[in-house]
Design a protein that fits this description.
Layout: H1 3-22, H2 32-47, H3 70-73, E1 80-81, E2 88-89, H4 93-98, H5 103-109, H6 121-133, H7 138-149
Antiparallel strand pairs: 1-2
């Protein structure tokens, strides 16, 4: 680190500390000022691109401890227990989006297989039954095929003219 960067970091940390102390809403004792100045200098140095004084190695990726095991999360057919908070959900997609995750990221975070479901089994079956009831799926394709196979009828057949005698 060059002297210029060191001086700039020290000056900037000092100016920030003075501004912070100048705020009338901050109640600070005299013993807290040196600790705050050290913290501010370390932060400014780190943001400037230098290595922080406390960090000596590379940072490790955070490890996430699941709230429940994968086996327990799928124990019930009525719900799936989230590994994030341990609460039951019929579908995990919206819950994951509130935590900023996609299903793929969730599976990767907790080392789950690609086939790990995001929807409870009974909920999926009820949605499937409802879709069939309202005509989604094969019925729609069959109806389109039947319409295409019917011969086209003329709108009106011409009338035969009456013979006058």
């Amino acid at each position: 680190m060059t002297d210029e960067t060191t001086l700039n970091a020290v000056e900037l940390a000092t100016e920030l500390t003075i501004a912070w102390l100048g705020n009338q809403n901050n109640r600070v004792t005299a013993e807290d000022v040196p600790a705050f100045l050290r913290t501010m200098h370390a932060t400014v140095t780190e943001l400037a691109g230098g290595m922080p004084a406390t960090a000596t190695g590379t940072e490790e990726a955070p490890t996430f401890t699941p709230a429940v095991t994968a086996r327990k999360s799928l124990a019930s057919k009525d719900h799936i227990i989230s590994m994030i908070d341990g609460k039951p959900y019929k579908t995990l997609r919206r819950h994951l989006s509130t935590h900023g995750l996609t299903p793929e990221q969730y599976r990767e975070r907790y080392n789950l297989k690609a086939a790990y479901p995001m929807v409870a089994e009974t909920y999926s079956e009820s949605r499937r039954a409802m879709a069939h009831k309202i005509g989604l799926g094969q019925k729609g394709r069959a109806a389109r095929a039947a319409v295409a196979a019917e011969p086209v009828k003329p709108a009106r057949e011409p009338r035969a003219k009456k013979a006058t005698a």
